[in-house]
Design goal:
Length: 266
């Protein structure tokens, strides 16, 4: 539309002329610094139709909110999920491998099928899971870290609890500040520490530092009894329910069989 009313200013006439002469089928209803609203616009239906504000509001995403406090970060343009079938939600969230899921500020799922949920949570291994602030499931397959600063840093290791650490293959640490630092070690309880392969530290502050001993026979009142069944060949084959200076009793133990082949507690 190139009509300019007689009352139009020179700038308005220039805007109309420019629109008419330099663009294809353009329509201008104002000029720079002199804009106009277009009111009573019907809802558009075709892809090339104009739409009104009500349509734009209806098209907004609902029940999903991210607050960047005014500072634009990575993933602002919904480009944090670079892996095939991956999902990234949150400021600086990144899912860079196939089927990865990253939810939370700076959450990172870099392993295939890895899941990282929480502020700075990192799931780096295939199938690894990190849940919680700064939880870290390191670059090994199928490890699990749940809790603030929990760390699972070996294959199929599981760390659950604040500052819990599972560093051995197949190890499990469960409890605040618990540590399972050797292959197949299990630590359950606050500050429990299983440091020998295959050992179990059960209870708050329990440790496996002393290790199991191999007992072949015993002499009592001049009589020697042996050879005992169930001899331990691995120092880690122990269950500890306390530590030096903090021992525990084991109560309600059922009566075990007494025989040359029995390995029951008595």
């Amino acid at each position: 539309m190139g009509y300019a009313p007689a009352s139009a200013t020179a700038a308005q006439k220039a805007a109309i002329t420019a629109t008419n002469s330099t663009t294809l089928a353009a329509v201008s209803v104002g000029a720079a610094g002199n804009t106009r609203q277009i009111t009573n616009v019907a809802a558009g239906t075709a892809n090339s139709d104009a739409v009104n504000v009500a349509q734009l509001i209806a098209a907004q995403t609902h029940y999903y909110s991210v607050n960047d406090n005014g500072t634009v970060g990575a993933n602002y343009n919904n480009d944090g999920a670079t892996g095939v079938n991956a999902l990234a939600a949150g400021v600086n969230a990144s899912a860079s491998n196939t089927y990865g899921i990253a939810v939370g500020y700076t959450a990172s799922a870099s392993g295939s099928a890895a899941t990282a949920i929480g502020d700075t949570a990192k799931a780096q291994g295939t199938g690894s899971i990190a849940l919680g602030y700064n939880a870290n499931a390191a670059n090994f397959a199928d490890n699990l870290a749940i809790g603030t600063n929990a760390s699972a840093s070996n294959a199929t290791a599981s760390a659950i609890g604040v500052m819990s650490q599972a560093t051995g293959v197949d190890s499990i640490s469960f409890g605040s500040f618990s540590q399972a630092s050797n292959t197949s070690a299990i630590a359950i309880g606050m500050l429990a520490n299983a440091s020998l392969a295959d050992s179990v530290a059960l209870g708050s502050r329990s440790t496996t530092a002393t290790g199991a001993t191999k007992e072949v026979s015993a002499t009592l009142n001049g009589l020697t009894y042996g050879t005992f069944a169930g001899q331990v060949g691995n120092p880690g084959m122990e269950v500890s329910v306390g530590s030096a200076g903090a021992e525990r009793q084991i109560k309600n133990v059922g009566s075990g069989a007494i025989s040359a082949t029995s390995t029951d507690a008595i």
